[in-house]
UniProtKB/TrEMBL annotation:
HAMAP family: FBPase_class1. Belongs to the FBPase class 1 family. Its main location: cytoplasm. Keywords: Calvin cycle, Carbohydrate metabolism, Cytoplasm, Hydrolase, Magnesium, Metal-binding. Mg(2+) 1 binds at E100, D122, L124. GO terms for molecular function: fructose 1,6-bisphosphate 1-phosphatase activity; magnesium ion binding. Residues 207-340 form the Fructose-1-6-bisphosphatase class 1 C-terminal domain. It comes from Rhodospirillum centenum (strain ATCC 51521 / SW). Its EC number is 3.1.3.11. This is Fructose-1,6-bisphosphatase class 1.
Length: 371
């Protein structure tokens, strides 16, 4: 058991030793990632105050526009993206990076040595929350570049989540943290601002098995598939329904904050497949949101699924592919998987009818409670 005052830098070295090896490239890369997260934490914490300094290499940041997903960027989305690129390109550990904010992969420029890793990231997750001062974060995933590749193309990044070497996310909230896994458990580090170091505060995090909270954007109810309607309706029925217990509902609109809550308190998060043509495969991005988060969740004893397939088994088809994402306490995710399977077999049709406006799970007409 590592000492509780272990810093992130020390932990990654000792963790590799414990596992009988030492990958100095990976150690250096993870160190660059944590440095980038510290810069972003500092930039986010300035809020509306003018940024007091510019992190090295981040002198020129493009003006915000609409990103490849059709979403309006915030200045901090681009600042965070630049911070990640500049902090992780020079050390010789990676040969390419891919980000939510860049249409194409970034190949490490010729002036720097190229390494054997690929770094994939969502530089600022939940950035629509910035102006209301709610927790945001950074999500990262580390993959091995295919043998012999030094100038990676899109194809080289299209690896299933099971191939991730390490993954995690930083939280920029009341407390700044990094939650990470290298494939053997999940560990949480709190940024000690007096020391300037992420310090191990949450070793071996485990998602509680018992769930009494679920999170979904209820404004999309009219687009949900029947298995999701069924799950939510049963939760809302509470003690008197088939679940025999009351549930609370949560929605932060910041994946990192939802996942951290689930790591601490258990529960379920869903951004499911829905029937909107624009959103059909799901809302969240496979490579830099779903995969790294799924690795963390599984390593903490939970599960992550589309409802029909384990997230980590999906073979990506494109860099910016979106997927349905259901994650959290294992038994809850398995329940959703069962509901999807039953529905796909043609059962559970009572949840088929559009509920919105007639029989919403949130506004149950009196007549519906009497039958
Ligand atoms: O605004 P919605 O539809 O509720 O979506 C919220 C989801 O979108 C995200 O904000 C997407 O992340 P970005 O801020 O990186 O685009 C998730 O963090 C969150 O789960
Ligand atoms: Mg995101
Ligand atoms: Mg983002």
């Amino acid at each position: 058991m590592p000492h509780r005052r272990t810093t992130f830098s020390r932990f990654i070295i000792e963790d590799q030793r414990r596992r009988g090896g030492s990958d100095t490239e990976l150690t250096a890369l993870l160190n660059d990632v944590q440095t980038a997260c510290k810069f972003i934490a500092t930039a986010v914490a300035r809020g509306s105050l003018k940024q007091p300094y510019t992190p090295i290499g981040v002198e020129t940041v493009a003006a915000p526009g609409v990103n490849v997903h059709g979403e309006m960027q915030k200045p901090l989305d681009l600042i965070a993206n630049e911070i990640f690129l500049r902090n992780c390109e020079f050390g010789g550990q990676v040969c390419g990076m891919a980000s939510e904010e860049m249409e194409e992969p970034y190949v490490i420029p010729a002036q720097f040595p190229r390494g054997r890793y690929l770094l994939v990231f969502d530089p600022l997750d939940g950035s629509s929350n910035l102006d209301v001062n709610v927790t945001v974060g950074t999500i990262f995933s580390i993959l091995r570049a295919p043998e012999g590749v030094t100038e990676p193309t899109v194809e080289d990044f299209l690896q299933p989540g099971t191939q991730q070497v390490a993954a995690g996310f930083a939280l920029y909230g009341p407390v700044d943290m990094i939650i990470t896994t290298f494939g053997e458990g999940v560990h949480g580090f709190t940024l000690d601002r007096e020391v300037g170091a992420y310090t191990l505060t949450h070793p071996n995090m485990r998602i509680p098995e018992k769930a009494c909270e679920f999170a979904i954007n209820a404004s999309n109810e009219r687009f949900w598939e029947p298995p999701v309607r069924r799950y939510v309706e049963e939760c809302i029925e509470g003690k008197t329904g088939p679940r025999g217990q009351d549930f609370n509902m949560r929605w932060v609109a910041s994946l990192v904050a939802e996942v951290y809550r689930i790591l601490i308190r258990g529960g379920l998060f869903m951004y499911p497949r829905d029937t909107r043509p624009s959103c059909k495969p799901g809302r969240l991005r496979l490579l830099y949101e779903a995969n790294p988060i799924a690795m963390v969740v599984e390593q903490a004893g939970g599960a992550a699924s589309t409802g029909r397939q384990r997230i980590l088994d999906i073979k990506p088809e494109s860099l910016h592919q979106r997927v349905p994402l259901i994650l959290g306490s294992k038994a809850e995710v398995e329940r959703l998987d069962r509901y999807h399977a039953a529905y796909d077999r043609g059962e559970d049709l009572k949840f088929e009818a559009p509920l919105f406006g007639t029989r919403s799970v949130f506004i149950t007409p009196v007549s519906a409670t009497q039958d």
